[in-house]
Amino acid sequence: MVLFTIVExxxxxxxxxxxxxxVTKFARLTGGGFLVGLFFFLILEWALNRLHNExxxxxxxxxxxxYMTFFMAENTxxxxxxxxxxxxxxxxxxxxxKTKISSESEVAVHNVW
Length: 113
Fold this sequence. Notes:
Elements: H1 2-13, H2 19-50, H3 55-74, H4 82-95, H5 103-112
Helix pairs in contact: 2-3, 2-4, 3-4, 3-5
């Protein structure tokens, strides 16, 4: 998707892309996507730490943060890769964030995802 976005922008502007433009755009999309995903993971982890035995809130938080991560990455002035940001959020949640979900709420979160 990152390469598709770069090619799409080059074709839309109808200008000759320079190697510096391609490298800069690639670094911005990938690095920015990683940072946005990590940022929203840290906020979600903090919020989940404050909740205990609240299945509805924990499910809603995970859903809202997934949508919010993609939206903030793609549709704001950041213009970074929303797909990559969402993947990074999911990877960090599956690695360490899963332990922040209370055991009573784990079944509800598993059923939704």
